Amino acid sequence: MTNIIYLDYHSTTPVDPRVAEKVMYYMTTAFGNANSVDHGYGDEAAKAVKQARQEIAELINASPKEIIFTSGATESINLAIQGHISQQNTPAKIIVSPVEHKAVLDTCKALAKKGLIEIIWLKVNQQGQIDLEHLEKVCCEGASLLCLMAANNEVGTIYPIEKIGAIASCYHIPFLCDASQAVGKIPLNFQDWGITYLAISGHKLYAPKGVGALVIKKDHHLPPMIYGGGHEQGLRSGTLNVPGIAGLGEACRLRQSEIETDESNIAVLRSQLQNVLQSNIPNLVVNGDINNRLSGNLHISVPDIPNSAIIARVRHQLAISTGAACSSGVVAPSHVLQAMNLSENIIEGSLRIGIGKFTTKAEINKASSVIINAVNAIHQIP
To answer: Angle at the Cα of 217 (from 131 to 120), degrees rounded to 5?
Structure first.
């Protein structure tokens, strides 16, 4: 695997070695249960959990008391949506962007199938941005919940969360923000941006897989989905994943101090790769909002070549993807690109490249050559 250049950072990030060191410490040395209050092992584990809450809170400007630890953003999203709707008169209205992650879309569709909600779909343009005027119009008509991500997991489009939150607040609509791709990459202000629920996933910001958080605005309450012990303010029972939580906290602490430098360097590498590919691949299309996208995102299409053909040629040298990992194994066009109303040949030729803090300039140079050579070789096939 060390010979394959990893450019799939939207799918998952490698764990920062400094984070891994902390995780290992709480797995092998300070391995106590955070709810064991009768001895020092439990005390040290509980202290680690408390510190992690503080570190996460500082990164997103929240209160540590607002943070509930989960297994990741998918669980956080389900807890927020299902818990919130269970307290509403049904059928409730949920405003949803069609370019959301499957965790949001599939949860909403399942609730709609049961007759518990009506989904109000927002409009998006060909860059994946939502229509703020349409958002205000549907909010004015009333809803029980608004679901909008902070940054898109496929095309990298960044959404104006502060403006979206202000609109939701104006009409007293609770706002769930899936921030799994955004936390640690762009500034977020939970306290001041009108967000009610915010979902975080550790493995998108150099922490381990299997740990995340749901941040819940003070004075908002949800019923538990999991019972058995009353952990996490009674909302999410189960023994806390102390090593993962400590790792998530450490990753958030590091992102807070390194975000500006890292994201600036990542953007330079992304631009370098984009420029080389555009110069050498005729008709190459860059998808998404190129003026408002994640630093590490490069979503491209080679219109006359199926993406599967390129992946087949580069897979032993590059780790890039045809779309979101949540849809892996599903042979279907990207729902994000379809919602953006892109043409069929653009969708069929799309590739998602994700650059991260451990990507090197040498890797970008090699990756550009591999992709260009693959495209040229396919063009030469009679």
So the answer is: 30
Least Cα distance to 269 among 365, 373, 142 occurs for 365
Matching residue, tokens 């040629």: 313
The residues annotated as belonging to the active site are 326
> Are the beta carbons of 74 and 270 closer than 8 angstroms?
no
Instruction: Give the distance from CA 255 to its chain's centroid.
Output: 15
Residue 37 has pLDDT above 90, yes or no: no
Tell me how far apart the alpha carbons of residues 349 and 312 are, in angstroms, rounded to a whole number. 13
Can you tell me the distance from the alpha carbon of 349 to that of 334, in angstroms, rounded to the nearest whole number? 11
What's phi and psi for 376, nearest 5 deg? Answer: -65, -40
pTM of the entire predicted model: 0.95
Helices (H), the chain: 17-28, 40-60, 73-85, 102-113, 132-140, 161-170, 242-280, 307-314, 335-339, 344-348, 361-379
Q: Where are the alpha helices (DSSP H) in 101-235?
A: 102-113, 132-140, 161-170
Residue 339 Cα to chain centre, angstroms: 18
The number of beta carbons lying within 10 Å of the beta carbon of residue 162 is 14
CB 22 within 8 A of CB 251: no
Confidence check: pLDDT of 330 > 60 = no
Residue positions counted in the chain: 382
**Distance between CA 159 and CA 152 in Å, rounded?**
8
Residue 37 to residue 48: CA distance in whole angstroms: 14
pLDDT, greater one: 211 or 324? 211
Q: Of 233, 245, 181, 171, give the one whose Cα is nearest residue 207.
A: 245
Query: What per-residue confidence (pLDDT) applies to 327?
Result: 53
Which DSSP letter does residue 14 get?
A: P
**Are the C-beta atoms of residues 154 and 97 closer than 8 Å to each other?**
no
- Spatial CA neighbour of 206 closest among 363, 356, 381: 356
Burial letters 216-243, b for 16+ CB under 10 A, else e: bbeeeebebeeeeeebbeebbeeebbbb
Between the CA of residue 220 and those of 76, 142, 215, 280, what are the distances in Å? Answer: 15, 19, 10, 53
